[in-house]
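DM from R.C. (forwarded with permission)

"hey, sorry to bug you on a friday — could you get me a structure for this? deadline for the figure draft is monday and I only need the backbone to look sensible"
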Amino acid sequence: MKRWTGSRALAVLLILGVSAAFGTEVYRYLDSHRSTLTLQVPRLTDPTKSHQTGPIDNLPGTLYLAANGAIYRLHAGTFSTVLRAPGGGSSWTQPAISADGQSLIVVQRAFETSDLYLVNANTGQVEEQLTHDLSRSYEFNDWAFYPKWTANDRDVFFSWDRPKDLAATYNVTLKIWEMRVSDPAIADQWTYPAGYSGGDVQPQPLASGGIVFTRYFYDQQTIYSQIWLANQMSFGAFDVGAPLTPEQDDCSQPSVSPDGTELAMICTGGGQTAKVEVASLEGNQLGTPITVVSGMQASQPTWAPDGSGLVFFAPYGPSGAFQLWWEPVPRTLLQPTPAPGSSPSPARPPAPARPTLLTTNLNFDASSPIAWHS
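My reply, with the result:
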């Protein structure tokens, strides 16, 4: 039987109400990666009041991150507020930035539902509510999570539990959908995961037109996840997707490099801590993964716009709050997997040294991917 980390055990207590109402295991993951320990310690520093200098000043471009129910912008080492916490038990989370850098799609999460909103990235003005998931009766509420723009800024992929199987008690399974941002009524379902599994989350569009995503499974004893690839939309119960990682690796949270040739992910192997792994991505094939970070409860690896490395969240200090870290990924670290019968590749260089801590007193929502624009 798997042991539970302290953060996961606390998360279960926090979401008993949600689990009782919805019975879906993926929400355990979502809440186990929120900074739940802030219930036990004083509220940590507001990012806009943080004056830490150092390596964080050298991050290129602009990052968008969620903390304390708000969305913040990080540019040239300085944080500013994009969206203030809405209050009333709701929070902003999971920002996704458009390719032109002008628009965000952000999740507003409430206790019993969540929706996608289109937001001006420069002014923070909410321009449109894209989904309408609140119902008069909570069992008919829907959940929308993990938006991700397509490269042409026309569509957004995201995870949605619509349509529900109301005949199956507590079966809330997230599926991948593609929605036209200019006309949210135009939406297509891409995946059809098994019921009571938690479903499919964190879609990452590919230049080929396909997607990679995390698929969760529940086998009545444990929860595990795999990175999957779908080259085209599924139809009905026939799912054309295929796994890229083995079950025993328990991998999730894929992040495709800007040039589309590399994939970063979180893999636990069923253990207490997580590894940040990187592998080459060529067509339908994932190369041999290389561990670039280990021994940490890492989450949400996100590529720099130039592909030079990754930022990610991991706990730091006695509070256990999630901070921002940086890990370079040298190009020489990744080499294609040799074809059968070919000469073996030269020995791979060792993994880089321990990652660089960028913040020490903040409190990021580690269930929220980081959006990074050049």
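R.C.: lifesaver. The helical segments are 6-14, 16-22, 26-32.
me: no worries. The radius of gyration is 20 Å.
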